[in-house]
Amino acid sequence: MKTAFISRSYEYREQYDAAIAHVVVVLRRMNMEGIDFVRRYSFGEGQAREMMAATLQSIRQADVLIAEVSEKVIGVGIEIGYAAALGKPIMYLRKADAPFSTTVGGLATIAIVYDNPQDLADKLIEALHSLDKETK
Q1: How many CB atoms lie within 10 A of CB 118?
Q2: 45 by DSSP, 3-state: which?
C-alpha cells in the first residue's frame, strides 16, 4: 500500500481538521495510507530530536508528501524541503484565500487551491490520478 505523509501545522490543526479528514478519506478510497503526523504522534517539549527523527523517517518511507500550506509554518517548510531533497512528489494544498508561497510553489509537483473540504476532496482525487500516471 502506498503512503502519503500529511504535512500540516500543529498550531492551526483544529482549523484544518475537516480538510485533512477529507484528505484521509480520499487516500483510503485510493488504497493509500495517510500519515497525519500531527494526529498520530505526541511529543513533549524535551523531545525535539525524537520528533524530528520520527518525522524524517516517516517522510523517507512515504511515497508522496501532501502539505497543507494555507498558514506559513516553519516545520511544514522543513518537511517539504526534505521531501524535495529525497525526490518525493509534493502536493501543495492551500485555501483559495491564502497567499501563494513561491518557495513551496517552486517545489510542488501538483498544487491544489480549494474553497472548502469537499472541493479539496474532489480536486485531490483528480490530482492523485494524475500523479499515479506520472509516476508509472
Answers
A1: 12
A2: coil
Residue located via cell numbers 497525519:
36
Query: Cell numbers 509534493 correspond to what residue?
Result: 90
For residue 129, the tally of other CB atoms under 10 A from its CB is 11
pLDDT tens digits, one per residue of 124-136: 999 999 988 776 6
Domains contained in the chain, CATH given: 2-134 (3.40.50.450)
The DSSP call for residue 98 is S
C-alpha neighbours within 13 Å on the C-beta side of residue 15: 11
Q: What is the three-class DSSP state of 59?
A: helix
Q: Supply φ then ψ for residue 80, to 5 degrees.
A: -65, -45
Give the model's pLDDT for residue 135. Answer: 67
